[in-house]
Request: fold
Amino acid sequence: MKNFHLPLPDDTYKQLRTEAERARLPATLLAREAIDAWLRHQKRRARHEAIVAYASKVAGTKMDLDPDLESAAVEHLLGTAKKSK
Reply:
């Protein structure tokens, strides 16, 4: 574990302290969890953007999704949706 000094605006610091007291948890734990959640979100967003960029780049080429496979996937999803109702 590494230490990281993070100056916070007064309002943010007060909100963090208030929430920590309410939750009866250390403020450092809440801050760590918030940073971890943000980093996970950023990673998911970057992965999504990479997939969108790749799909846009290969759309309509030989690397595009196979039409038969796409149709089978749609049929499967529609069948699954009907069964789960």
